[in-house]
Design goal:
Layout: H1 2-13, H2 30-34, E1 37-42, H3 51-62, E2 66-67, E3 76-81, E4 104-110, E5 117-124, H4 130-147, E6 150-151, H5 154-160, H6 164-167, H7 174-179, E7 185-187, E8 194-198, E9 208-213, E10 219-225, E11 230-231, H8 234-238, E12 244-251, E13 254-261, E14 266-273, E15 276-285
Parallel strand pairs: 1-2, 1-3, 6-11
Antiparallel strand pairs: 3-4, 4-5, 7-8, 8-9, 9-10, 10-15, 12-13, 13-14, 14-15
Helix pairs in contact: 3-4
Length: 286
C-alpha cells in the first residue's frame, strides 16, 4: 500500500495524474444551475491557445447555455487559465503577469457581476493534452449540473392539478386568499395580478406557486415557474400526444413550445435553449 502511494506521488509529480491546483466544489452554486448564458474567457499562453475554441465546440454540443460575447450579457463566465484564479476578474487592469506553466489547466466558473469563484477544477496533464482536459472539464460540469437537476415526470406535474390544497383557492378574490388562516399567500411587489403561495402540503413540484389574479380580482389559475434545476423531458409529453394540443412561436426574445391539455386546464411551456427544450412554466387553470 505504501509502495502504491509512492508511485502515485511520482506520477502526479510527472504530470501524469490530475493535480488539484483548484479544488472542485462538491455542490454547485445555484447561480451555476440557474445560468442560461455563458461567456468563454481564455487566459491561454502558448500551448493553451486553442482552449476557447474547444470549449465553444463542447458547449455547443451540450446546448445548455447561450454563448455570448460580452460579460454584461452573461450569467456565467467560463475562465480557462494555467494559473489559479485570484478573484480579480472585475478589477484586473491588464493581462496576468504571473509566471505560468502550461502543464496546468484550470477552469473557473466566475460570477460576471461579482467576480466570485463559483466552481473550479484543475488538471496537470501537460500542454499536449489541453484539448482533452477542456473536453473533460465540460463533461464533468455537465455531470454535476445534471446530478443536481430535479427530473420531474409528467405525472408529477399532473398531480398538482388535482391537489385539494391548491384547488381551494379557485375563484377566491385576492383579499379572500390573503385572509385564509395560515394560507401561505403573500403579495408580490410590483405584480398586482399575482400572489405567491407556499404550500408545504402540495406535491413537490408545486409547493411554491403563483396565484394568477384576473382583472375582476378573482383567482383564475396558479402557475409554477420552473427553474433551471427543474427538468421534464419533452418526449414524456409527446408520448401522450393524444391528451394535448401543441403550439409554438416566439415570445419577446425566447422561442417556445407549449402543450395544452384538451380540457384547457393545464398548459406546459418549454423554451428553446441551444439544442434543447427546457421546461419553463406550468399553468393550471381553475
Amino acid at each position: 500500500m505504501k509502495r502504491l502511494a509512492q508511485i502515485l506521488i511520482l506520477l502526479a509529480g510527472a504530470g501524469l495524474l490530475p493535480s488539484a491546483v483548484a479544488r472542485k466544489q462538491e455542490r454547485l452554486s445555484p447561480k451555476v444551475i440557474q445560468a442560461k448564458s455563458a461567456l468563454i474567457v481564455c487566459v491561454c499562453p502558448r500551448g493553451m491557445a486553442g482552449r476557447g475554441g474547444r470549449a465553444l465546440h463542447e458547449l455547443q454540443l451540450w446546448g445548455r447555455f447561450q454563448i455570448v460575447r460580452n460579460r454584461h450579457e452573461a450569467d456565467l463566465v467560463l475562465l480557462f487559465s494555467a494559473n489559479e484564479y485570484l478573484g480579480d476578474y472585475l478589477t484586473r487592469d491588464g493581462p496576468d503577469e504571473r509566471p505560468v506553466s502550461v502543464d496546468f489547466t484550470i477552469l473557473t466558473l466566475v460570477d460576471p457581476k461579482t467576480g466570485e469563484n463559483l466552481w473550479s477544477d484543475s488538471r496537470r496533464w501537460g500542454s499536449w493534452r489541453v484539448d482533452h482536459a477542456t473536453k473533460e472539464f465540460i463533461a464533468e460540469l455537465r455531470e454535476q449540473i445534471e446530478e443536481q437537476t430535479r427530473k420531474w415526470t409528467l405525472d408529477d406535474l399532473l398531480m398538482c392539478g388535482v391537489n385539494p390544497e391548491l384547488a381551494a383557492f379557485g375563484h377566491l378574490t385576492a383579499e379572500q386568499a390573503l385572509a385564509k388562516p395560515e394560507s401561505g399567500v403573500s403579495r408580490i411587489a410590483g405584480s398586482p395580478d399575482r400572489l405567491t403561495l407556499n404550500s408545504p402540503a402540495a406535491p413537490d413540484f408545486c409547493k411554491q406557486t403563483q396565484l394568477v389574479v384576473s382583472p375582476d380580482n378573482r383567482i383564475v389559475a396558479f402557475e409554477v415557474l420552473a427553474s433551471r434545476a427543474d427538468s421534464l423531458e419533452v418526449t414524456e409529453v409527446l408520448q401522450q400526444a393524444d391528451r394535448f394540443d401543441f403550439a409554438g412561436g416566439k415570445d419577446m426574445d425566447s422561442v417556445y413550445f407549449s402543450a395544452q391539455s384538451k380540457d384547457k386546464k393545464i398548459l406546459i411551456r418549454f423554451e428553446a435553449q441551444g439544442h434543447k427544450s427546457v421546461l419553463s412554466s406550468v399553468r393550471y387553470s381553475y
